[in-house]
Specification:
Radius of gyration: 13 Å
Distance between the termini: 28 Å
Order of helices and strands: EEH
Structural class: alpha+beta
Oligomer: single chain
Largest sheet: 2 strands, antiparallel
Number of helices: 1
Strand content: 25-35%
């Protein structure tokens, strides 16, 4: 998990899901043109840093 999905001739897709409080789920999806990985790399890296809250009230 956490690596872009590549399919020939189709856009690259990066997806990240995190568990939240009260059985909720957070989603981050980034779809971009194939061949733009270098340009989109910083956004994918940012998506990798998303984490669930440490405390739920």
């Amino acid at each position: 998990m956490g690596e872009p999905f590549r399919n020939q001739g189709r856009p690259d897709i990066y997806m990240r899901q995190i568990a939240l409080c009260d059985d909720a789920m957070g989603n981050f999806t980034l779809e971009y043109p194939a061949g733009q990985q270098k340009r989109m790399g910083p956004l994918v890296d940012r998506g990798k840093t998303l984490k669930a809250s440490k405390h739920c009230d």
